[in-house]
Every structure is written in structure tokens, then in C-alpha cells.
Design brief:
The chain starts with 18 loop residues before the first strand and ends in a 9-residue tail after the last strand. 35% of the residues lie in helices and 20% in strands. It has 14 helices and 16 strands. Helix 6 (211-225) links the parallel strand 9 and strand 10 (228-233). The longest helix is centred in the N-terminal third of the chain and has 18 residues, at 115-132. By secondary structure, it is an alpha/beta fold.
Length: 430
């Protein structure tokens, strides 16, 4: 991560100061203080002890971070909050994708998922993400079919509880089809979601009868309503399924500036290297961000390959080499599509190290700064000019943070402590 201060020392005549964060240890190993303005942004990185003392006297509030490693707060760029923590409500005995879909639809038809239940589950999940260090969340919500836009109402009610401590936005995950015969009900649900203020339009073009038409449909909506796009794309190990290329071509052709993300993109990881390089170049040129989702795709993908089972990840190396933004998210958490998951992006980062062959510093970036970039949001962290959304952990390096995922964490939103977890343990050797 980049921990450059953007300036040296502290000058009270030019640096606004509302609160002061002291004993801040940066990945470079030095300990500094951070001046935070009333708007929650870092206004100065203070290195000299006499300057720290002067700033402390002037600050309205001083927060001692105790020499913990201070990093940019985490982000969750792809979740399914409406499904979170339903693994016991909708059991998936086979563990595969077909079993997950059947389990969810069966429970849904039986009325298992009530509005109040969904509100409480979503609120619980947001709380777990916050204490893990997440201050920015994007969640896909089912829109269409028999549920219409009801999931959005529950998600909005839950998210209101976290106003002012984390940024939460929702994607209309449209049911198929969205074009042609049988699409009328799904389109009505999308229109309702737009009236309710959905921030992002999504869908699954690779499952549509006409993928290209479905892509044009969501891009039309995004352009006309001034919202972003985030599509479930090529969630399959079939190397010939490359709607990601179709999406990149459509975005480049339109040149409208709409922020576009493509999630999953598993089939690109199965394609030959020349195909990976070609598609990655198009994605990078179009400015389409890609979100890898190791947890759910490692669980669901590759079951039809009992030998040399594929990893269920996109072509991370080719995409990064082409200049594309590549982030990583958790996707599903303890639901029929992923029976485990701890609501912690450091778990996702560790999986990217192990399964994606990404180095720890890069993996951390994929669940922090790159994740925010994929959502079209500016970076945060202990850098002048950035909002002081921070994660303070009692470890010595970014690598150690990813490896150990320590339970003890302090989370700040705009320089204000919004979550704190302490942990104690004991060993009795008799």
C-alpha cells in the first residue's frame, strides 16, 4: 500500500485539525500522528514529536491507536446481503450450484424469507463487516421473478442503521430474461427498483438467451438513469463463454463514462493465454473493473473436473498486466451458495494469495483500495487528502495482517472510531 504523507510536518496555520490520531504505525515502520479535519479527511501527517505535542494541545479529540499498524479500511465490492446467513434456512445437501439454486427457490416459495427476517440478517451481516474493518459495501439483491423489488426494501431498512459509519450501495441483480419473450415481469421489477433509488444495475448476461442484447439493456438503463453497472459475468469454467469481451466492446463503443464492473469472469481463467491477453487488453482499454470472488467460486466451480480441478478464478495476472482494475470480494456468506465465510475481507485476501498466486500486499490492495476503485469510489487511508477510513491492527506488516487476520481491530470512519474488537486468550499448561 501507498503510505506517502503528501507533505512533511504539521503547520497549524495551514492544516485544519478537528481530531488527532496518535501512535499511528505505517507499513514503512515509522510512527506518526494524523491530523483529521472536520470533514473527516487527513489534513497532515505529523512526524516530529514536538509537532505532535503542539497538535495534541490544539485538537478537540485525540485518539491513541497504540502503535498498531494503520491501513486503509477494507471494502466489500461484491456481496449478497439478502442471502447472507441462510445456509441453515435453505440447506444445500449436494453443495453444488444446482443444489444451491434449488435450495434457495424452494425456501423462497415456502415463504421462509420474511421481510423482518431479511432486515435482521442483513443488519447482522453489515455489523460483522463493520467490525472486520469494512466501511464500504456493495451488495447485489435479487430483483424480478416472484420477489419483485422487495429485497431492496429490506436492504434499505437494514442499511439505514449504519448511516454515517459505512457506505452501502445496492445492485439490482435482475432475473433472466431481461430481453425478449418472458422478460416483461423482470423489467417491471427493474423499473420499481429504479423508482426506489437503486444505485447500480446488474444481471447475468451469460445466462440470457441473447447476452449482447442483455448487455445493451443494462447499459441503456445506466446511461439514462446515471447509475453504475455491475454484471455477474461468465461464472462458468467453459473457456468459450466470453461475454466479458462482448461487454468490453460495448462499453468502448459507447464511450459514455458509465462505471462498469464485471464480477466472477471465471471462464477467462480457463481460456488459453493468448485469449486471456486479448480479452484483458480490451477490458483494460474499456476501463471495465473485474471483481474476483474466490470464496464462492472455489466452492462451486470445477466440480465436474475431478482431476486437476480448476481454481474457479479469473485471469488475474493477464488483467492486471493489461491495466485493468482487479478487486476481490466474498460473494456469498453462509448461504446455499457458500456454506462458510466469516464476513472478513482478510479471508478473501488470503484466498487470493493461496489460490490466485497474488502477493500479500497486492491481495490487501484488492480488498481495500482496488475494491473501492472497482466501485468508482476514491481511495481512503492514512494519506493527506483522503478520508480517514482506517483499520488499525496489532501486527507488524501487511503480510502478517493478511496471514493472521487478527481478531483485535479498531475501525475508523472519517477519523472517528466506529468499531472496536478486543480479544483475550489464555493457555493453561497445568
Amino acid at each position: 500500500m501507498d503510505d506517502r504523507s503528501g507533505g512533511d510536518g504539521y503547520d497549524p496555520s495551514v492544516s485544519s485539525l478537528d481530531r488527532l490520531l496518535v501512535n499511528v504505525r505505517r507499513p514503512s515502520g515509522d510512527t506518526v500522528a494524523l491530523a483529521v479535519g472536520a470533514d473527516g479527511t487527513v489534513t497532515a501527517v505529523i512526524e516530529r514529536s514536538d509537532d505532535v505535542a503542539a497538535a495534541s494541545r490544539a485538537a478537540g479529540t485525540t485518539i491513541d491507536l497504540g502503535g498498531r499498524l494503520v491501513l486503509p479500511a477494507l471494502a466489500e465490492p461484491h456481496s449478497h446481503l439478502d442471502k447472507a446467513r441462510t445456509a441453515d434456512l435453505a440447506p444445500n445437501p449436494t453443495g453444488d450450484l444446482a443444489g444451491a439454486i434449488d435450495a434457495w427457490l424452494t425456501a423462497e416459495a415456502a415463504g421462509v424469507f420474511t421481510h423482518d427476517d431479511m432486515v435482521e440478517r442483513i443488519a447482522t451481516e453489515l455489523g460483522r463487516l463493520l467490525v472486520a474493518g469494512v466501511t464500504c459495501v456493495r451488495s447485489h439483491l435479487n430483483v424480478g421473478g416472484r420477489v419483485g423489488a422487495r429485497h431492496l426494501l429490506a436492504a434499505r431498512a437494514a442499511a439505514e442503521r449504519f448511516s454515517g459509519v459505512m457506505d452501502v450501495e445496492f445492485v439490482a441483480l435482475t432475473h433472466t430474461p431481461t430481453t425478449g419473450p418472458g422478460s416483461e415481469g423482470n423489467r417491471r421489477a427493474v423499473a420499481e427498483a429504479l423508482e426506489l433509488g437503486i444505485e447500480v444495475i446488474g444481471g447475468c448476461p451469460h445466462l440470457e438467451p441473447d447476452p449482447a442484447a442483455a448487455i445493451e439493456y443494462v447499459l441503456d438503463i445506466a446511461e439514462s438513469h446515471g447509475i453504475s453497472v455491475d454484471l455477474h459475468t461468465d461464472e462458468t469454467t467453459d473457456p468459450t463463454m466470453l461475454t466479458l469481451e462482448t461487454l468490453a466492446e460495448a462499453v468502448r463503443r459507447r464511450e459514455t463514462g458509465v462505471a462498469v464492473a464485471a464480477s466472477h469472469c471465471v471462464s477467462l481463467g480457463m481460456a488459453p493465454t493468448d485469449v486471456q491477453d486479448r480479452v484483458a487488453a480490451q477490458v483494460g482499454s474499456a476501463g471495465v473493473a473485474v471483481v474476483a470472488l474466490p470464496q464462492t467460486n472455489l466452492f462451486l466451480q470445477g466440480r465436474e473436473h475431478p482431476v486437476a480441478t480448476p481454481r474457479g478464478l479469473t485471469a488475474v495476472r493477464a488483467l492486471r498486466a493489461a491495466g485493468a482494475t482487479v478487486a476481490a470480494g466474498a460473494d456469498n456468506t453462509q448461504d446455499p451458495f457458500n456454506l462458510v465465510g466469516r464476513s472478513d475481507p482478510l479471508e478473501t485476501a488470503a484466498l487470493m494469495v493461496m489460490a490466485g498466486h497474488v502477493l500479500p500486499d497486492e491481495a490487501f490492495d484488492m480488498v481495500s483500495t482496488a475494491a473501492r476503485a472497482a466501485l468508482g469510489r476514491p481511495p481512503v487511508g492514512p494519506v493527506v487528502g483522503r478520508r480517514a477510513d482506517l483499520l488499525a491492527v496489532p501486527v507488524g506488516s501487511v503480510r502478517q495482517a493478511v496471514a493472521e487476520a487478527p481478531a483485535e481491530r479498531i475501525v475508523l470512519f472519517g477519523g472517528r472510531v466506529v468499531a472496536r474488537t478486543t480479544a483475550t486468550s489464555s493457555i493453561d499448561l497445568g
